[in-house]
């Protein structure tokens, strides 16, 4: 709760609109995996906000490509123990870093394909929506 000396919270209008998302009646972001959105964002379509989309993508990467860091400065390997010296400031050696980036890109492409198909199916199921009159 703000104290008497803090400025009032200001909510900006949505770009191209004269009101904020709440007053436009946009629904809150549904959050991620049954957890409410921590940003309390509202989206025009009721889809996930950018923050929740990033968290979902990162969770998918963590699950698909787990990393167990070592304590001795050697590379833990991307798919199996490597043992080479890790690059400065990195968990991996150069060879394993490249392999992990290729796998990361593949996992992201797969995730985006599944996400886009789910969004398309949901939109097709909703059918055409009429736009509300501006006034």
Please, could you describe this protein's structure?
This protein is mostly helical and 135 residues long. Helices cover 36% and strands 0% of the residues. It contains two helices and no strands. The chain has helices at 50-64, 94-126. The longest helix has 33 residues, at 94-126. The chain is elongated, with a radius of gyration of 22 Å.
Question: What are its keywords?
Answer:
0% strand, mainly alpha, 135 residues
Number of strands: 0
How would you state the average pLDDT, rounded?
81
**Biggest β-sheet description:** none
Number of DSSP helical runs = 2
Strand content: under 5%
Order of helices and strands: HH
Alpha-carbon distance between the two ends: 34 Å
Low-confidence stretches: none
Report Rg.
22 Å
Category from helices, strands and their pairing: mainly alpha
**Helix proportion range:** 25-40%
The geometry reads as elongated
